[in-house]
Amino acid sequence: MIETRITKMLNIKYPLLQGAMAWIATGKLAGAVSEAGGLGIIGAGTADPQWLKNEIDEARRVTEKPFGVNLVLVSPYIDEIIELVLRENIPVVTTGAGNPGKYMPRFKERGIKVIPVVASVALARRLERQGADAVIAEGMESGGHVGEMTTMCLVPMVVDAVGIPVIAAGGIADGRGMVAALALGAEGVQMGTRFICAEECPAHPAYKEKVLKARDRDTEVCGTTTLHPVRAIRNRFVRYYLEQERAGLSAEELERLGVGKYPDAALKGDVENGSILAGQVAGLVNRIQPAHEIVSEVIREAEDLLRNGLGVNMCLD
Amino acid sequence: MSVFEGVKEIIVEILDVAPEDITLESKLVEDLEADSLDIVEMVMQLEDKFGLQIPESAFEDLKTVKDVVEYLEKRLQEK
Question: Which ipTM did the prediction report?
């Protein structure tokens, strides 16, 4: 049993969080992950409150265990979404795309755990000062929105800088990654890309197929000249976008180019002209499995490594 | 040390620019090439150095070095 401050804080069996991919981290997926002993997280994305309400209800049909909601702070519905989260007594929220500072007091007074995603040491320190319960340090190996630091470097630096627990994300898809993260000082991990290929995830089959087929070098970061770079699997859209970016298209025009491309791929299955967001770790994801199997496999691998050593010979004198 | 000197010292360290290139008129983003995470780092160090808390709502108005200096002077007076 891998027990950390995270398992205790979130009242979960395993320190394994499911990343909240917008639109496809639904109640069904989050419920299944939580039921298996991890923490499922519904991705509120920019969806309206009714969508989120339905997904929360769905998760509750699947499990009685705790699950979380990820808030996108730039969502046009953010105020209503937060009201809904409070009304539904969701025990934990993760946040991305912005600083949750101004919402913190409302969550704190209700005892809701707030776990922001951070891509720098300074932001981690700031959010700790503002009352975050833990942070998710996410490296640029991850899919979707990315920062500049790698997980290998960011996690130990954040661990050294804050006193609250750190969850590692970006580039983790199996027990080896989990143990590596624990070695860096993390007390939990968050995995997104592998859960795209969970049976319960409603991503379009063509999207899942792309993730399964992706090899090590098949993802690209698009939009480094904009404020919101994202990692996606290379396809016709990514090639076109990068051409335009190299040709010097303005940040505004590039942002416009990307609008709606992710749901086109994830929900409609347009894997040529849509944006297939996924992490570099897609190269390690080779099977579609039920969520509970993913959770138990990762945990079993991690526990085996911790119990039996790392396969290196060590001379102790 | 004046507030300006204190701010300058922090900017020099974070952004690796020459002290003589920093004037009151310097724009943080356009002239000094700070990105949003640099601003967070700067605010954290300002909080430590001047012993106050700077809320998120104040960030938007801090465009130039002068904005930062005047904001700090106002807050320090209120203390």
Answer: 0.80
